[in-house]
Specification:
Translation Initiation Factor IF3, BirA Bifunctional Protein, domain 2, 14 helices, RNA-binding, alpha+beta, 11-stranded mixed sheet, 5-stranded mixed sheet, globular, Rossmann fold
Length: 480
RNA sequence: CGGGGAGUGGCUCAGCCUGGUAGAGCACCUGGUUCGGGACCAGGGGGUCGGAGGUUCAAAUCCUCUCUCCCCGACCA
């Protein structure tokens, strides 16, 4: 495959993103299926690592995996009023199967609350059946009009957790526990700092009482909603008649939660760390942590270098790039744009000195390391990269977060921000969760991303749109 | 659905205005010299120009119709 130049971030951030996805062997547009993509080897390997990190944590918090049907009877969606209203426009519907018109069409799942609600009703009879804690890894279809690889595609991969509880307090605790799991993975695995918060009424999940999210800042200052956790209250319990007998012997509806993250996280990962040379992956999510490029001219050099290369690579767990047809230079570019954290160079010079050259993907620095020390040094370097990538992203988030005390100020800060040109900010302002506020911010295409759970600023203040008092500043930004 | 753009070897595109039945770079194949940041030379294979119709001695090029894709907008956990 041709390795084309990568557009600079400063020139056009949106095009840069596409270039990095393509050149990093992460994905390519399917073209033959509208709005869909092919997740390629490197991209899928990152997803597998991410899945593992998430799944381990789901299990550790008591959840079990299950799998439900892809097709959902259309009538199921209609049982919860807000849910059907929210999802109807983006449904794909199967009306013909086996050569016959179906009596009742199926929708391809846009999310599984409804079909899972149906089974909850079957399975839950007593308080002893609760809590029921399950998760599903699945694909989802939502007929979006505007798609971008990983960030919003017609079909995408995700996990959706669904739980049922005897009390609202218990359900609320679950919602926040899983939000914490997401934040932990985002920050400690993806090296992507996030803000945990509550979504506004306008932005909450269709059918939920409350939606919480983690919001991350991309390098263009856009916000990316990276994971959500919903307090569904008894809405779906009532819609699907999920009743249980409590300890007092009375019938009650269950309190449900649902929470999800998707392959969108990979888009966030790319836009958090990558640079003008291509993909940069945090070591914890790099399918290949180190590649060794052997360098030689003459045949006798070749033999010695390759022997040493394979021996050292085996010792430290690196992959040797011993392709004959490529020059070392071409190999450096190849692995660089695929985001491999460490590239090792080994040539005659190194055999003579007993060193090996270690290059870090994040900083681009090259350092000779004694071959004997490499096995000990490599894990330390990878750990340091992981930390340093987080620190850099955190610093950028801080540097691009500003306070504003009037709507005009917010507007002037965000008005001209686009995904292509960048320059986005997280503007912290006092804004009431109200239709009037949403409408005013829509004039310059910004939204309240979330109401942070932890107020790091100055407490209550007057809403810059309505004048009413609100208890803390919220995050206003442009978003994907 | 409104505005804009594009369909030509695997990929990116030139040629179209001023019709004469296809070109470049990359990729690929063969041989040789290279190899510490995208190597070079020589030779070679591969397309009939999104589709349909029309004008013409002659159409990638002009005309008509049509299909598809991309971007911007509206839409969107």
């Amino acid at each position: 495959m041709a390795e084309s130049p990568i557009t600079a971030r400063s020139q056009d951030f949106a095009t840069w993103y596409q270039d990095v996805v393509l050149q990093g062997d992460m994905a390519e547009p399917a073209e033959i299926v509208k709005g869909c993509m092919v997740i390629k080897a490197n991209g899928y390997a990152v997803w597998e690592l991410l899945q593992r990190k998430l799944d381990d944590r789901f299990k550790a918090t008591g959840h079990q995996n299950m799998y439900f049907p892809l097709l959902i009877p259309q009538s199921f969606l209609q049982k919860e009023a807000e849910h059907v209203e929210g999802f109807s426009p983006e449904l794909a519907v199967v009306t013909v199967a086996g050569g016959k018109q179906l009596e009742e069409p199926y929708v391809i799942r846009p999310t599984s609350e409804t079909i899972i609600g149906h089974f909850f009703a079957k399975w839950i009879k007593s308080w002893r059946d609760l809590p029921l804690l399950l998760n599903q890894w699945a694909n989802i279809v939502r007929w979006e009009l505007r798609t971008r690889m990983f960030l919003r595609t017609t079909e995408f991969l995700w996990q959706e957790g669904h739980t049922a509880h005897a009390t609202h307090e218990e359900a609320q605790a679950e919602v926040l526990r899983m939000l914490d799991v997401y934040a932990d993975v985002a920050e400690n695995v993806m090296a992507m700092p996030v803000i945990k918060g509550l979504k506004t009424q306008a932005e909450r999940f269709a059918g939920a009482l409350r939606t919480y999210s983690i919001e991350a800042m991309m390098q263009n200052g856009f916000a990316l909603q990276s994971g959500t956790s919903h307090d569904l209250g008894q809405n779906f319990g009532k819609a699907f008649d999920v009743q249980f007998q409590n300890k007092e012997g009375q019938l009650d509806y269950v309190w449900q939660t649902s929470w999800g993250v998707s392959t969108r996280l990979i888009g966030g990962l790319i836009m958090s760390h990558s640079d003008d040379k291509g993909l940069v992956l945090p070591p914890k999510l790099a399918p290949t942590k180190a590649v060794l490029v052997p360098i030689f001219r003459k045949d006798e050099e070749k033999e010695k270098v390759l022997e040493a290369a394979h021996r050292i690579a085996k010792e430290v767990g690196a992959k040797v790039d011993d392709r004959e047809a490529q020059s070392p230079g071409a190999k450096f570019f190849h692995w660089e744009r695929r985001g491999v954290p460490v590239v090792l160079e080994l040539g005659p010079r190194d055999l003579a000195s007993g060193n090996i050259v270690l290059k870090r993907r994040d900083t681009g620095t090259k350092d000779p390391v004694p071959q004997a020390e490499l096995a000990a040094r490599l894990p330390a370097v990878l750990a340091e990269m992981q930390q340093s990538m987080y620190d850099t992203a955190k610093q950028r988030l801080k540097a691009n977060t500003v306070l504003a005390n009037s709507i005009e100020e917010v507007e002037s800060l965000l008005k001209d921000v686009t995904a292509e040109k960048g320059g986005g900010k997280f503007v912290m302002a006092h804004v009431k969760d109200a239709a009037e506020s949403d409408l005013r911010m829509k004039e310059f295409k910004a939204t309240v991303r979330c109401i942070p759970l932890v107020d790091e600023y100055d407490g209550p203040g007057k809403c810059i749109v309505t004048g009413e008092t609100v208890d803390r500043r919220v995050v206003v930004a442009k978003a994907y």
